[in-house]
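Proteins fold reproducibly. Next comes a concrete instance:

***
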Amino acid sequence: MQTDLIPVTAADAEPRALALLEAGAAIALPTETVYGLAADATNGTAVAAIFAAKGRPRFNPLICHVPGLAMAGRLAEVGSVAERLAEAFWPGPLTLVLPLRSDSPVHPLATAGLSTVAIRAPKGVVGRLAEALGRPLAAPSANPSGRVSPTSAEQVLRGLGGRIPLILDGGPSSVGLESTIVRPERDRLVLLRAGGIDRAALAAATGLPVVDPAPDAALSAPGQMTSHYAPAGRVRLDATNVEPGEYLIAFGAGLVPGEEAAAGVVNLSPAGSLAEAASNLFAALAAFDAPEIARIAVAPIPHDGLGEAINDRLRRAAAPRPEI
Protein backbone atom coordinates (compact mmCIF):
# COMPACT_ATOMS: atom_id res chain seq x y z
CA MET A 1 0.00 0.00 0.00
CA GLN A 2 1.30 3.45 -0.91
CA THR A 3 1.16 6.03 1.85
CA ASP A 4 0.70 9.64 0.77
CA LEU A 5 1.87 12.44 3.04
CA ILE A 6 0.21 15.77 2.33
CA PRO A 7 0.08 19.04 4.29
CA VAL A 8 -3.09 19.89 6.16
CA THR A 9 -3.04 23.19 4.25
CA ALA A 10 -3.30 21.48 0.84
CA ALA A 11 -6.55 22.32 -0.95
CA ASP A 12 -7.61 18.68 -1.20
CA ALA A 13 -6.34 17.53 2.22
CA GLU A 14 -9.57 17.45 4.19
CA PRO A 15 -11.86 16.32 1.33
CA ARG A 16 -9.47 13.46 0.58
CA ALA A 17 -9.23 12.49 4.24
CA LEU A 18 -13.00 12.62 4.61
CA ALA A 19 -13.51 10.37 1.58
CA LEU A 20 -11.14 7.75 3.03
CA LEU A 21 -12.84 7.88 6.43
CA GLU A 22 -16.25 7.46 4.80
CA ALA A 23 -14.86 4.43 2.96
CA GLY A 24 -13.79 2.79 6.24
CA ALA A 25 -10.04 3.46 6.03
CA ALA A 26 -7.70 4.27 8.90
CA ILE A 27 -5.56 7.37 8.31
CA ALA A 28 -3.06 9.40 10.33
CA LEU A 29 -4.08 12.85 11.50
CA PRO A 30 -2.31 15.52 13.58
CA THR A 31 -3.62 16.58 16.97
CA GLU A 32 -2.21 18.92 19.56
CA THR A 33 -1.14 15.93 21.70
CA VAL A 34 0.35 13.35 19.31
CA TYR A 35 -0.53 12.12 15.82
CA GLY A 36 -3.51 9.78 15.85
CA LEU A 37 -4.49 6.82 13.69
CA ALA A 38 -8.13 7.65 13.01
CA ALA A 39 -11.13 5.73 11.68
CA ASP A 40 -14.91 5.86 11.96
CA ALA A 41 -15.67 4.76 15.53
CA THR A 42 -19.10 3.43 14.54
CA ASN A 43 -17.73 1.05 11.88
CA GLY A 44 -16.32 -2.19 13.29
CA THR A 45 -14.28 -3.01 10.19
CA ALA A 46 -12.79 0.50 10.20
CA VAL A 47 -11.85 0.19 13.88
CA ALA A 48 -10.30 -3.22 13.18
CA ALA A 49 -8.16 -1.52 10.52
CA ILE A 50 -6.62 0.60 13.29
CA PHE A 51 -5.49 -2.48 15.21
CA ALA A 52 -4.24 -4.14 12.03
CA ALA A 53 -2.16 -1.11 10.99
CA LYS A 54 -0.56 -0.74 14.42
CA GLY A 55 0.49 -4.42 14.45
CA ARG A 56 0.63 -6.91 17.34
CA PRO A 57 -2.51 -5.36 18.78
CA ARG A 58 -4.26 -5.83 22.06
CA PHE A 59 -7.94 -5.07 22.46
CA ASN A 60 -8.09 -1.90 24.52
CA PRO A 61 -10.65 0.89 24.58
CA LEU A 62 -9.89 3.66 22.11
CA ILE A 63 -10.51 7.37 22.57
CA CYS A 64 -13.39 8.66 20.44
CA HIS A 65 -12.77 12.14 19.06
CA VAL A 66 -15.69 14.53 18.60
CA PRO A 67 -16.12 18.17 17.60
CA GLY A 68 -17.71 19.10 20.94
CA LEU A 69 -20.35 18.45 23.57
CA ALA A 70 -23.23 18.00 21.14
CA MET A 71 -21.76 14.84 19.60
CA ALA A 72 -20.39 13.69 22.95
CA GLY A 73 -23.94 13.72 24.26
CA ARG A 74 -25.00 11.28 21.54
CA LEU A 75 -22.33 8.81 22.63
CA ALA A 76 -22.38 9.04 26.42
CA GLU A 77 -24.23 10.28 29.47
CA VAL A 78 -22.66 13.70 30.06
CA GLY A 79 -23.25 14.96 33.59
CA SER A 80 -22.73 18.42 35.05
CA VAL A 81 -19.14 17.76 36.16
CA ALA A 82 -18.20 16.53 32.69
CA GLU A 83 -19.84 19.58 31.16
CA ARG A 84 -17.75 21.89 33.35
CA LEU A 85 -14.57 20.10 32.34
CA ALA A 86 -15.48 20.21 28.65
CA GLU A 87 -16.31 23.91 28.83
CA ALA A 88 -12.95 24.57 30.50
CA PHE A 89 -10.66 22.39 28.38
CA TRP A 90 -12.31 21.48 25.08
CA PRO A 91 -11.06 21.61 22.44
CA GLY A 92 -7.87 20.44 24.06
CA PRO A 93 -5.88 17.58 25.59
CA LEU A 94 -8.49 16.21 28.01
CA THR A 95 -10.25 12.86 27.65
CA LEU A 96 -13.38 12.12 29.66
CA VAL A 97 -14.41 8.56 30.50
CA LEU A 98 -18.21 8.60 30.65
CA PRO A 99 -21.07 6.08 30.89
CA LEU A 100 -21.98 4.76 27.45
CA ARG A 101 -25.50 5.56 26.29
CA SER A 102 -27.68 2.54 25.61
CA ASP A 103 -28.23 3.83 22.06
CA SER A 104 -24.64 4.91 21.48
CA PRO A 105 -23.50 4.33 17.88
CA VAL A 106 -19.89 3.59 18.93
CA HIS A 107 -18.86 0.07 17.87
CA PRO A 108 -18.04 -2.29 20.80
CA LEU A 109 -14.57 -2.87 19.33
CA ALA A 110 -13.78 0.80 20.06
CA THR A 111 -14.96 0.54 23.67
CA ALA A 112 -13.52 -2.97 24.24
CA GLY A 113 -17.02 -4.01 25.26
CA LEU A 114 -16.94 -1.75 28.34
CA SER A 115 -19.94 0.19 29.64
CA THR A 116 -17.97 3.43 29.37
CA VAL A 117 -16.52 5.38 26.47
CA ALA A 118 -13.47 7.67 26.38
CA ILE A 119 -14.20 10.95 24.57
CA ARG A 120 -12.06 13.94 23.61
CA ALA A 121 -12.64 17.07 21.53
CA PRO A 122 -9.27 17.87 19.94
CA LYS A 123 -8.14 21.07 18.32
CA GLY A 124 -7.78 21.33 14.56
CA VAL A 125 -8.44 18.96 11.71
CA VAL A 126 -9.63 15.90 13.68
CA GLY A 127 -12.58 17.76 15.15
CA ARG A 128 -13.45 19.26 11.77
CA LEU A 129 -13.37 15.85 10.10
CA ALA A 130 -15.52 14.28 12.84
CA GLU A 131 -18.05 17.06 12.35
CA ALA A 132 -18.01 16.66 8.55
CA LEU A 133 -18.33 12.87 8.87
CA GLY A 134 -21.11 13.25 11.41
CA ARG A 135 -19.60 10.45 13.49
CA PRO A 136 -16.84 10.14 16.12
CA LEU A 137 -13.30 9.18 15.13
CA ALA A 138 -11.55 6.47 17.13
CA ALA A 139 -7.86 7.35 17.22
CA PRO A 140 -5.02 5.89 19.27
CA SER A 141 -1.49 7.12 18.65
CA ALA A 142 -0.29 6.60 15.06
CA ASN A 143 2.63 4.29 15.74
CA PRO A 144 3.39 0.57 15.64
CA SER A 145 2.42 -1.08 18.90
CA GLY A 146 5.06 -0.61 21.59
CA ARG A 147 6.86 2.23 19.84
CA VAL A 148 7.15 5.89 20.87
CA SER A 149 4.08 8.01 20.13
CA PRO A 150 4.73 10.20 17.08
CA THR A 151 4.70 13.99 17.24
CA SER A 152 5.44 14.61 13.55
CA ALA A 153 4.19 13.29 10.23
CA GLU A 154 7.68 12.03 9.39
CA GLN A 155 7.69 9.83 12.49
CA VAL A 156 4.33 8.39 11.46
CA LEU A 157 5.64 7.68 7.97
CA ARG A 158 8.67 5.84 9.36
CA GLY A 159 6.47 3.62 11.50
CA LEU A 160 3.32 3.13 9.44
CA GLY A 161 4.38 3.87 5.88
CA GLY A 162 2.88 1.26 3.57
CA ARG A 163 0.24 0.25 6.12
CA ILE A 164 -2.15 3.20 5.74
CA PRO A 165 -3.15 5.25 2.70
CA LEU A 166 -2.77 8.80 4.03
CA ILE A 167 -0.92 10.94 6.56
CA LEU A 168 -1.97 14.56 6.96
CA ASP A 169 1.04 16.68 7.93
CA GLY A 170 0.14 19.40 10.41
CA GLY A 171 3.66 20.04 11.61
CA PRO A 172 4.98 19.17 15.08
CA SER A 173 2.37 18.46 17.77
CA SER A 174 2.05 21.48 20.01
CA VAL A 175 1.52 19.50 23.24
CA GLY A 176 3.51 16.38 22.38
CA LEU A 177 2.11 14.54 25.41
CA GLU A 178 -0.91 12.30 25.30
CA SER A 179 -4.14 13.61 26.78
CA THR A 180 -5.05 13.59 30.43
CA ILE A 181 -7.76 10.99 31.08
CA VAL A 182 -10.32 11.67 33.80
CA ARG A 183 -13.44 9.90 35.03
CA PRO A 184 -15.76 12.58 36.42
CA GLU A 185 -17.84 11.63 39.44
CA ARG A 186 -20.36 13.64 41.43
CA ASP A 187 -17.95 14.66 44.17
CA ARG A 188 -14.49 14.00 42.73
CA LEU A 189 -12.39 13.45 39.63
CA VAL A 190 -10.57 10.15 39.16
CA LEU A 191 -7.32 10.67 37.29
CA LEU A 192 -6.81 7.62 35.09
CA ARG A 193 -3.85 8.96 33.10
CA ALA A 194 -1.70 12.03 33.63
CA GLY A 195 -1.24 14.23 30.59
CA GLY A 196 -1.17 17.76 29.28
CA ILE A 197 -3.63 19.11 31.88
CA ASP A 198 -2.43 18.79 35.47
CA ARG A 199 -4.31 18.05 38.68
CA ALA A 200 -4.30 21.65 39.83
CA ALA A 201 -6.00 22.85 36.66
CA LEU A 202 -8.61 20.10 36.88
CA ALA A 203 -9.36 20.95 40.51
CA ALA A 204 -9.52 24.67 39.78
CA ALA A 205 -12.03 24.17 36.97
CA THR A 206 -14.42 22.07 39.04
CA GLY A 207 -13.72 22.76 42.71
CA LEU A 208 -13.44 19.01 43.22
CA PRO A 209 -10.60 16.86 44.56
CA VAL A 210 -8.57 14.88 42.05
CA VAL A 211 -7.87 11.31 43.21
CA ASP A 212 -6.13 8.24 41.89
CA PRO A 213 -8.17 5.12 41.14
CA ALA A 214 -8.33 2.50 43.86
CA PRO A 215 -5.68 -0.21 43.41
CA ASP A 216 -8.39 -2.84 42.86
CA ALA A 217 -10.71 -0.64 40.78
CA ALA A 218 -12.09 -1.87 37.49
CA LEU A 219 -10.07 -0.45 34.61
CA SER A 220 -11.90 1.72 32.10
CA ALA A 221 -9.38 3.81 30.17
CA PRO A 222 -7.23 3.09 27.12
CA GLY A 223 -4.33 0.84 27.99
CA GLN A 224 -5.76 -0.27 31.36
CA MET A 225 -8.12 -3.12 30.53
CA THR A 226 -7.76 -6.42 32.36
CA SER A 227 -9.80 -9.61 32.08
CA HIS A 228 -13.20 -8.71 30.76
CA TYR A 229 -16.31 -9.74 28.86
CA ALA A 230 -16.63 -13.34 29.95
CA PRO A 231 -20.04 -14.79 28.98
CA ALA A 232 -22.16 -16.66 31.49
CA GLY A 233 -21.15 -20.05 30.11
CA ARG A 234 -17.75 -21.69 30.14
CA VAL A 235 -15.59 -21.11 27.07
CA ARG A 236 -13.46 -23.87 25.53
CA LEU A 237 -10.76 -22.60 23.18
CA ASP A 238 -9.07 -24.16 20.13
CA ALA A 239 -11.90 -26.65 19.83
CA THR A 240 -11.30 -29.25 17.11
CA ASN A 241 -14.71 -30.81 17.71
CA VAL A 242 -18.10 -29.77 19.04
CA GLU A 243 -19.49 -31.76 21.93
CA PRO A 244 -23.25 -32.38 22.24
CA GLY A 245 -25.05 -29.34 23.67
CA GLU A 246 -22.19 -26.92 23.03
CA TYR A 247 -22.58 -23.65 21.17
CA LEU A 248 -19.90 -22.90 18.59
CA ILE A 249 -18.00 -19.77 17.63
CA ALA A 250 -16.57 -20.76 14.26
CA PHE A 251 -13.97 -19.23 11.96
CA GLY A 252 -13.43 -19.83 8.26
CA ALA A 253 -15.18 -21.97 5.70
CA GLY A 254 -14.35 -25.41 7.04
CA LEU A 255 -16.74 -27.36 9.26
CA VAL A 256 -15.69 -28.38 12.76
CA PRO A 257 -16.42 -32.06 13.45
CA GLY A 258 -19.72 -32.27 15.31
CA GLU A 259 -20.81 -28.77 14.17
CA GLU A 260 -24.06 -30.11 12.76
CA ALA A 261 -25.09 -31.06 16.30
CA ALA A 262 -24.15 -27.72 17.88
CA ALA A 263 -26.90 -25.94 19.82
CA GLY A 264 -26.07 -22.75 17.95
CA VAL A 265 -23.36 -21.42 15.65
CA VAL A 266 -21.89 -17.96 15.01
CA ASN A 267 -19.10 -17.68 12.45
CA LEU A 268 -16.75 -14.76 13.06
CA SER A 269 -15.72 -14.74 9.39
CA PRO A 270 -16.73 -17.44 6.89
CA ALA A 271 -14.09 -15.97 4.54
CA GLY A 272 -11.34 -16.36 7.14
CA SER A 273 -10.71 -12.61 7.48
CA LEU A 274 -9.11 -11.68 10.78
CA ALA A 275 -10.29 -8.07 10.40
CA GLU A 276 -13.89 -9.23 10.00
CA ALA A 277 -13.47 -11.63 12.91
CA ALA A 278 -12.17 -8.85 15.16
CA SER A 279 -15.10 -6.66 14.19
CA ASN A 280 -17.58 -9.44 15.01
CA LEU A 281 -15.99 -10.89 18.15
CA PHE A 282 -17.85 -8.93 20.83
CA ALA A 283 -21.18 -9.44 19.07
CA ALA A 284 -20.53 -13.19 18.90
CA LEU A 285 -19.72 -13.41 22.60
CA ALA A 286 -22.78 -11.31 23.42
CA ALA A 287 -25.00 -13.57 21.30
CA PHE A 288 -24.08 -16.52 23.55
CA ASP A 289 -24.04 -14.59 26.83
CA ALA A 290 -27.15 -16.05 28.45
CA PRO A 291 -27.74 -18.05 31.67
CA GLU A 292 -29.11 -21.02 29.74
CA ILE A 293 -25.94 -21.32 27.63
CA ALA A 294 -23.51 -23.33 29.74
CA ARG A 295 -20.78 -24.26 27.27
CA ILE A 296 -19.24 -22.50 24.28
CA ALA A 297 -16.64 -24.03 21.99
CA VAL A 298 -14.39 -21.73 19.95
CA ALA A 299 -12.70 -23.00 16.80
CA PRO A 300 -8.95 -22.36 16.39
CA ILE A 301 -8.09 -18.89 15.11
CA PRO A 302 -4.66 -18.00 13.68
CA HIS A 303 -2.41 -16.04 16.03
CA ASP A 304 -0.79 -13.80 13.45
CA GLY A 305 -1.75 -10.13 12.97
CA LEU A 306 -5.17 -9.36 14.45
CA GLY A 307 -5.40 -13.00 15.46
CA GLU A 308 -3.18 -12.22 18.43
CA ALA A 309 -5.73 -9.71 19.70
CA ILE A 310 -8.66 -12.02 19.03
CA ASN A 311 -7.01 -14.87 20.90
CA ASP A 312 -6.02 -12.54 23.71
CA ARG A 313 -9.66 -11.53 24.26
CA LEU A 314 -10.82 -15.12 23.96
CA ARG A 315 -8.28 -16.22 26.58
CA ARG A 316 -9.69 -13.58 28.91
CA ALA A 317 -13.22 -14.77 28.21
CA ALA A 318 -12.16 -18.35 28.96
CA ALA A 319 -10.14 -17.55 32.10
CA PRO A 320 -11.15 -19.47 35.24
CA ARG A 321 -13.73 -17.63 37.33
CA PRO A 322 -14.63 -18.12 41.00
CA GLU A 323 -17.82 -20.02 41.67
CA ILE A 324 -20.73 -17.82 42.77
